[in-house]
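Example record

Each entry pairs one chain with its bound ligand, 1,6-di-O-phosphono-beta-D-fructofuranose.
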Amino acid sequence: MEIRPALHAYLEWPAQQNPMRAATVAVIEALAGAAIELARTIAAGSLAAIGGESGGINPDGDRQKTIDIIADRLMRDALRTAPVAAVVSEEMELPEVLDADAPLCVAIDPLDGSANLENNISVGTIFSIRPKTRDAISTFFEPGTAQNAAGCFIYGPQTVLVLAFDQCVDCFTLDPRTGEFVLTGRDLQVPPDTPEFAINASNRRHWSGAVRGYIDQCLAGVNGERGQDYNMRWIGSLVAEAYRILMRGGVFLYPADARQGYREGRLRLLYEAHPIALIMEWAGGAASSGRARILELSARSPHQRVPLIMGSTRAVRDVDAVHLTVEPLFESSDAPLFARRGLFR
Ligand code: FBP
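Structure tokens for the complex follow.
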């Protein structure tokens, strides 16, 4: 019979290697404990009266749900028990210093996609861990390559932890009988050749020429430039899209678009794009803004947004290539996001 180690046992050996890895393991285990509790609350759904609005507004202007507040509290309380110098959370305007002398900094989206809960669709917690550099706060403004681990918990039909650690991406499933995460997928690799894309197509009229060009090529199917028929998926939940791509490949796009407030995309660099990009790259996939590798980008502010294209490497490179040749629909306020030369307009 296959032996499936529990998360704690699996991380025991790396934790013995050096103090930084031991600290990283302590953070992962603290978050896993909080995720188990959050999974229980989410699974209770209407029975736990978590669906309502809390009355608060997060730093991005979104209305906070009660469950957003619960998730934020659970995760930050857990981080207080671990060697964490500072935390950036989607639900807090400014980074919070926990223990300035501790070796790690954590950026976290405590409950991504919480609006999906009303429809019983998977949601998740996304986290990014990096060693503290000069001081706790400036650590968050280093590029995403500074991360030494990242992951996401997905609260869906199964509760799952996708963990990027030690250059490898593993998957753990919460066993409801024991209340423990157990290793169920080792060294995950993004399948390289899946003709499947995910994008919120209702925004088509707001897209740049590059994004329209790429999606139009996919829609043209076997008779078009790409020479094959494509399938489309859109869940509207980043963790669920990332998990699907890890399992069966394809590409996900949340591009910048011409709507007010979307000139730099929708997703946040520190606690959405950076950790998901680390997962993708360590699983053999790729993540780009269309112009740059996500992991080479640095945040200018805690809640900075970024366009995100992630998935099978070839597809991400194809989207990058289209960005190099296509005229923009609009200019970003402070960065030349799109080149000028019309192919698709
Ligand atoms: P929140 O972080 O505000 O929960 O939003 C993130 C998210 O739900 C992603 O999970 C998803 O990819 C995206 O927003 C969906 O956005 P849209 O509703 O614009 O398609």
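Residues 196-322 form a domain with the D-Maltodextrin-Binding Protein; domain 2 fold (CATH 3.40.190.80).
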